[in-house]
């Protein structure tokens, strides 16, 4: 038996007895309006947000708020016209000129304004970080109150890479001066896609 194997065997035989995981239900969200809370928190951290009824509204807002003469890519077939549908097979270095990337979140978290983006949603891992501006479509029913509910959903998911992203890139390391777009997208826009007729949010 090698030294490594001997050490690992000793660790295995000297582990403490198993104990149940702590109850974290008290940390989970209550009955608050998660959509309203998400809107408030996300805009407070520098994000831009719109509540929309369909993809046609998203397309119209993009044409109004972004420079469509520059490269706009999306992973969503619903927005592939007139925008460029992202290819997952091309060299990621070819995305160095992306002005705006539009992707769909797996879920969003009301308490911190973050969206959960596994690799399957990104198209390619580089996309949410290399673009000048990032737009994320969030179905309203996927917004959860806290990270505890989020981890309940994603804890056993099958993905090789994923990230919580909350708001545009920012830093305040230098003289405590807040700088947007320091090392990633300059802006982040979230489109909350309503699925229920009775969902009313005023932004």
Automatic annotation (TrEMBL):
Protein name: Lactate utilization protein B/C
InterPro entries, alphabetized: FTHF_cligase-like_sf, LUD_dom, NagB/RpiA_transferase-like
Pfam families: LUD_dom
The organism's place on the tree of life at top rank: Bacteria
Residues in LUD domain copies: 94-193
Organism: Spirosoma telluris
TM stretches of this protein: none
């Amino acid at each position: 038996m090698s030294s490594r194997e001997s050490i690992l065997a000793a660790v295995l035989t000297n582990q403490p007895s198993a104990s149940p995981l702590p109850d974290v239900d008290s940390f989970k969200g209550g009955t608050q309006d998660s959509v309203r809370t998400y809107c408030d928190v996300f805009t407070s951290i520098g994000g831009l947000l719109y509540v929309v009824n369909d993809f046609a509204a998203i397309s119209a807002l993009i044409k109004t708020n972004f420079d469509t003469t520059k490269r706009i890519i999306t992973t969503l077939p619903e927005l592939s016209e007139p925008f460029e549908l992202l290819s997952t097979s091309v060299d990621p270095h070819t995305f160095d000129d992306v002005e705006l990337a539009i992707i769909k979140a797996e879920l969003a978290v009301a308490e911190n304004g973050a969206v959960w983006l596994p690799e399957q949603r990104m198209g390619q891992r580089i996309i949410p970080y290399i673009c000048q501006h990032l737009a994320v479509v969030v179905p309203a029913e996927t917004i959860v109150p806290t990270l505890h509910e989020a981890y309940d959903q994603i804890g056993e998911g099958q993905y090789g890479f994923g990230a919580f992203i909350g708001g545009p890139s920012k830093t305040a390391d230098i003289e405590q001066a807040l700088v947007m777009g320091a090392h990633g997208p300059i802006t982040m826009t979230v489109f909350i896609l309503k699925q229920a007729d009775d969902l009313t949010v005023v932004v």
